[in-house]
Amino acid sequence: MSSVAFETQRAALADVVAIPVTPFAEDGSVAPDTYRALLRRLLDGGITTLTPNGNTGEFYALTPEERRLVTELTIDEAGDRAAILVGVGHDIPTAVASARHARELGAQMVMVHQPVHPYVSQAGWVDYHRAVAEAVPELGVVPYIRNPQLTGARLAELADACPNVIGVKYAVPDAAKFAAFARDAGLERFVWVAGLAEPYAPSYFSAGATGFTSGLVNVAPAVSLNMIEALRSGDYPAAMKVWEQIRRFEELRAANGSANNVTVVKEALASLGLCRREVRPPSRTLRDDERAEVAAIAAGWSI
């Protein structure tokens, strides 16, 4: 893979990295037509980087067949309108198979979900990501880091072995730790994506991030784009005005250990008539009083 192609991928990460929801039909299956419509709304709203099979897409509640379907629908619907960063994970053979499937369909990048395992050593973290990255050397690889124990030196070690590791979705909720980690790994070496979305974007941008992930973008693409425009221009007061606008919505998502992270986004979409509110266990739909508050917030964004 030429460095020119990776530069294109790096540019796509330095942006609003949208994590689409996965809508379900009345019978509980994935709803392809609704999903395509939600993708079109993102694309028409100016979003140019999509992560199918992210956490907002309920990655861990989907079957392998459904994850493949979501990847296929996203790449087909987006065409050349967006860069596609496919979420992959689980055991190494499953993650590798998903990454190769993404490559066959024409995706440019894969995001490797944090290994879900009670025992993660730092050297084993490198081994896990190296197995995926080496299987698809043509694709840009983006580790999704949620482990506060991981050091920047380990990421640098991974990238020494795998030059296609080009970006990082950093989701440890600690801005000082992020600043240190990025500098230990190599601030200019990777594209740093603030992996905790709009609430953390201003502080993480001040420390070196140039992109942020978003689930809120499903509901209000213009709001997310307003924030990144402010951050790119270094206008932190303007970025914080957006932060204030989205604060309550994101607090509802983050409450109780992010129990309703996806639920709140789907509820907002349901209030706008864009998809059903259902989520899969272990997530759950909102109480009636919470539904009303989410609907009021979404309506207030005049979408």
Description:
This protein is α/β, with parallel strands linked by helices and 303 residues long. It contains twelve helices and eight strands. It has helices spanning 3-13, 32-44, 64-78, 92-105, 122-135, 152-161, 175-185, 201-206, 221-232, 236-258, 261-271, 288-300, and strands at residues 16-18, 49-50, 83-88, 109-112, 140-145, 167-170, 191-194, 211-214. The chain has an eight-stranded parallel beta sheet with strand order 1-8-7-6-5-4-3-2. Helix 7 (175-185) links the parallel strand 6 and strand 7 (191-194). Helix 6 (152-161) runs parallel beside helix 7 (175-185). The model has no long low-confidence stretch (mean pLDDT 96).
Give the secondary structure arrangement, pairings included.
Layout: H1 3-13, E1 16-18, H2 32-44, E2 49-50, H3 64-78, E3 83-88, H4 92-105, E4 109-112, H5 122-135, E5 140-145, H6 152-161, E6 167-170, H7 175-185, E7 191-194, H8 201-206, E8 211-214, H9 221-232, H10 236-258, H11 261-271, H12 288-300
Parallel strand pairs: 1-8, 2-3, 3-4, 4-5, 5-6, 6-7, 7-8
Helix pairs in contact: 2-3, 3-4, 4-5, 5-6, 6-7, 9-10, 10-11, 11-12
Number of strands: 8
The rounded Rg comes to: 18 Å
Overall mean pLDDT:
96
Spans with pLDDT under 50 lasting ≥5 residues? none
Treating each run of at least 4 consecutive H or I residues as one helix, how many helices? 12
User: What can be said about the biggest beta sheet?
Assistant: 8 strands, parallel
The geometry reads as: globular
GO molecular function: 4-hydroxy-tetrahydrodipicolinate synthase activity; 5-dehydro-4-deoxyglucarate dehydratase activity; N-acetylneuraminate lyase activity
Enzyme class: lyase
EC number: 4.1.3.3, 4.2.1.41, 4.3.3.7
Keywords: Lyase
